[in-house]
């Protein structure tokens, strides 16, 4: 499985590509960071990030794009920028029919280090060890992108099976409800008395 991990951000957007399968050693294909100046207008910053993400999608042709799920923080402007970049990445992937998976920071930390409260330094150290890198990826955004990709390599198949099972369970429950409703209607029809006009 080839996964493109994206740690969304306007000032720094981490991007990393990982090859691997659950239970096997993962391999870093490429990692980098897209930077845009804070003084540049928002549409142009999104364009720069989008163009670079497009190049990575076309160059590496990932099977899945893993993006960090945005959570509210104290800095609203930062959250807005992160959400906008996430939207651009999701759109570009969808245009190429590439599935997009969103993982929360705690999910990624737990998958990589075993603790949902691990700090960035711990995550970078574990990513370095897992991927067999000589040095930790820098800046932290690059390490986070690789962590997202590794997280999906390890958790993606399991999450897909859970989602599939949930879909089947919902379909069975719906069919069961439909049968109960039909049985109830049939019981009401069979219990109806003929009107007075039809009595003899």
From TrEMBL:
> Keywords on this record?
Cytoplasm, DNA damage, DNA recombination, DNA repair, DNA-binding, Endonuclease, Hydrolase, Magnesium, Metal-binding, Nuclease
Task: Give the EC number.
Answer: 3.1.21.10
Q: Where is the composition biased (Basic and acidic residues)?
A: 189-200
Any idea where this protein resides? Cytoplasm
Q: Where is this region: Disordered?
A: 173-200
Catalytic residues, chain numbering? 7, 68, 141
What are the GO MF terms of this UniProt record?
Answer: crossover junction DNA endonuclease activity; DNA binding; magnesium ion binding
In which residues is Mg(2+) 1 bound? 7, 141
GO terms for biological process, alphabetical: DNA recombination; DNA repair
Where is Mg(2+) 2 bound in this sequence?
68
Keyword Glycoprotein applies:
no
One Pfam family from the record = RuvC
Principal place of residence? cytoplasm
Q: What HAMAP family does its record include?
A: RuvC (MF_00034)
Role played: The RuvA-RuvB-RuvC complex processes Holliday junction (HJ) DNA during genetic recombination and DNA repair. Endonuclease that resolves HJ intermediates. Cleaves cruciform DNA by making single-stranded nicks across the HJ at symmetrical positions within the homologous arms, yielding a 5'-phosphate and a 3'-hydroxyl group; requires a central core of homology in the junction. The consensus cleavage sequence is 5'-(A/T)TT(C/G)-3'. Cleavage occurs on the 3'-side of the TT dinucleotide at the point of strand exchange.
User: What NCBIfam families does the record point to?
Assistant: ruvC
* Family classification: Belongs to the RuvC family.
Subunit structure of this entry?
Answer: Homodimer which binds Holliday junction (HJ) DNA. The HJ becomes 2-fold symmetrical on binding to RuvC with unstacked arms; it has a different conformation from HJ DNA in complex with RuvA. In the full resolvosome a probable DNA-RuvA(4)-RuvB(12)-RuvC(2) complex forms which resolves the HJ.
Write the protein's name. Crossover junction endodeoxyribonuclease RuvC
Q: Which organism is it from?
A: Allosaccharopolyspora coralli
From the UniProt record, report the name of the gene that encodes this protein: ruvC
């Amino acid at each position: 499985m080839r996964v493109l991990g994206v740690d969304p951000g306007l000032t720094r957007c981490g991007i990393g590509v990982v090859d691997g399968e659950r239970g096997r050693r993962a391999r870093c294909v490429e990692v980098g960071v897209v930077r845009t100046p804070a003084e540049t207008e928002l549409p142009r910053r999104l364009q720069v990030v989008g163009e670079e993400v497009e190049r990575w999608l076309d160059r590496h042709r990932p099977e899945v794009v893993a993006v960090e799920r945005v959570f509210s923080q104290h800095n609203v402007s930062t959250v807005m920028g992160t959400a906008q970049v996430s939207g651009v990445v999701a759109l570009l992937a969808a245009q190429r029919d590439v599935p997009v998976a969103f993982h929360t920071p705690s999910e990624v930390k737990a998958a990589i280090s075993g603790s949902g409260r691990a700090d960035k330094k711990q995550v970078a150290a574990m990513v370095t060890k897992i991927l067999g890198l000589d040095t930790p990826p820098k800046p932290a955004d690059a390490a986070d992108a690789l962590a997202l990709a590794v997280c999906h390599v390890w958790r993606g198949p399991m999450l897909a099976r859970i989602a599939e099972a949930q879909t089947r369970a919902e379909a069975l429950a719906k069919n069961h409800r439909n049968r109960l409703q039909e049985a109830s209607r049939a019981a009401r029809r069979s219990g109806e008395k003929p009107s007075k006009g039809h009595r003899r």
